[in-house]
Specification:
By secondary structure, the chain is of the alpha/beta class. Helices cover 32% and strands 22% of the residues. It has a 7-stranded mixed β-sheet with strand order 7-6-5-2-1-8-20. Strands 10-17-11-12-13 form a 5-stranded parallel β-sheet. Strands 14-15-16 form a 3-stranded antiparallel β-sheet. Pfam families: Pyr_redox_2 (PF07992). This is NAD(P)/FAD-dependent oxidoreductase.
């Protein structure tokens, strides 16, 4: 029996895999990854492309719902979208990118294991998407770092809710007028969307909760909004901004325009208009600034620390680098005046992410890139239950219609059908049952009870403190 020789030849080289690194899991990071999953489905299946998403949190936070989460209208787990569930075609890494050397196509990151091992990770890539978002812009105000509370994350929103209810508990349990006044004084600094909506929702919640306290009345609480400029909510227009001030003052909220916070040291708030009063709650929502990782790259930045980008969302003059959202200075091609940039808000970020995903796929296939062009359609804001303002397509709405539009719009924008259904179900249940006014502040220090039982000193803060 003769066996014929089989000539196998030289095995072909495996196809080169293109790694797309997405820094950030917020609006731009999530929506860009979703778009790339869809546009590069065949390449991902063949192993010709890989998408890596690096995010400090395993979820994306839908920030417009944070005020309602703080007020108890929405469960905190329903305002976040789990990245691993929706990005099944991507490799999700929980960590923080600390620096980027784009010339070498490498990123340095700290992962959850870095604290244990003391070693950072080096991650190589072919295409870079920078979308780390922004961080709170703070000022060197005495006492702010020690006593201020932010409002950008779901943890901060729920922590603030617990804090407000705990202050009501403190006021209810003492006859000392100084302690009561400080506990029932709530100061919000910043008259943008975050500050006004958080104040409106929490004041509404606290007013409702007061009915269950025998010695705390709504009129005992002092709610103060401090804004350095001469108007609030500039995005909804001057007329709606004036209406918002009138509406807040009608609810006995002290709105102070052209006023700055000068100090909150020792829990005593000092304002630029000469006002001075004790307060145990200072919420800081006075703007944001670019994420510090942008300064740790070799990519071009503008004067405000944002990445210089082209209308196609590529980093200007740098191949294989892309950006959008808060981190990017994107030219507004729809604006009449030259040099104007798109506003760093969610409306642009979501739309930019879709164009960005398409352009990366086009670039890999040597196709022409698409220009990002979107005319700003307006804004909506909630001022509490059944109260709101809106300026959309030139039309101005206030009260219930604006509040209803706010809910419909953001329900349509929150990612995944799962989250839409859960949020809608919670709204429906909230219309049938009473508000939840329970503080779960002890969740922030889960080991305190066990440490006390074991004879040690509990770490963190004791119950009822802030």
């Amino acid at each position: 029996m003769v066996t014929a020789a089989i000539h196998r030849g030289t095995p072909p080289d495996p196809p080169k895999s293109v790694r797309i690194l997405i820094v950030g899991g917020g609006y731009v990071g999530l929506y860009t990854a979703l778009r790339l999953q869809r546009r590069l489905k065949a390449e991902l299946a063949r192993g010709e492309a890989e998408i890596v998403v690096v995010s400090p949190d395993p979820y994306m936070t839908y920030q417009p719902f944070l005020p309602e989460a703080a007020a108890g209208a929405i469960s905190p787990r329903h305002v976040v979208v789990p990245l691993r569930r929706v990005l099944g075609g991507c490799h999700v890494v929980i960590g923080e990118v600390t620096s980027i050397d784009h010339a070498k196509r490498t990123a340095t990151l700290d992962t959850l294991a870095t604290e244990e091992t003391g070693q950072t990770e080096q991650l190589s890539y072919d295409e870079l998407v920078l979308a780390p978002g922004s961080i709170s812009r703070t000022l060197p105000i005495p006492g702010l770092a020690e006593h201020g509370i932010g409002f950008k994350t779901v943890e901060e929103a729920i922590g603030l809710r617990n804090h407000v209810i705990e202050q009501m508990d403190i006021a209810s349990s003492t006859r000392d007028p100084a302690i009561r006044d400080a506990a029932l004084t709530f100061v919000f600094v910043g008259g943008g969307f975050a500050g006004v909506e958080a104040l409106g929702e929490l004041e509404d919640m606290a007013r409702y909760a007061a009915r269950y306290y025998h010695n705390v009345k709504p009129e005992d609480m002092k709610w103060i909004l401090v804004e350095a400029s001469d108007r609030i909510l500039p995005e909804v227009g001057e007329e709606m901004g004036r209406y918002t001030v009138t509406e807040l003052r009608r609810r006995n909220i002290d709105v102070r325009l052209e006023t700055r916070l000068e100090s909150c040291a020792d829990r005593v708030v000092v304002l630029s208009d000469g006002a001075r009063f004790p307060a145990r709650t200072v919420v800081w929502t006075a703007g944001v600034k670019p994420h510090p990782v942008l300064a740790a790259t070799d990519l071009p930045l503008n004067g405000r620390g944002r990445l210089k980008c082209t209308p196609e969302l590529a980093v200007d003059g740098v191949p294989h680098a892309w950006a959008a959202g808060d981190a990017a200075a994107v030219p507004d091609v729809t604006a009449a005046e030259p040099g104007k940039e798109t506003a760093p808000n969610a409306q642009h970020a979501v739309r930019q992410a879709r164009v960005l995903g398409d352009n990366i796929a086009r670039s890999l296939r040597d196709q022409a890139l698409e220009t990002y062009a979107h005319t700003y359609v307006g804004s909506v804001a909630s001022l509490g239950l059944h109260k709101g303002v809106a300026h959309v397509y030139g039309r101005k709405l206030k009260g219930y219609p604006a509040w209803f539009m706010h809910r419909v719009y953001h329900l349509s924008r929150v990612p995944t059908f799962n989250r839409k259904a859960r949020v809608l179900a919670e709204w429906a249940l909230a219309g049938l049952f009473k508000r939840e006014i329970v503080s779960l502040g002890s969740l922030e220090h889960p080991r305190a009870e066990f440490e006390l039982a074991a004879g040690g000193k509990p770490s963190g803060y004791p119950k009822g403190s802030s």
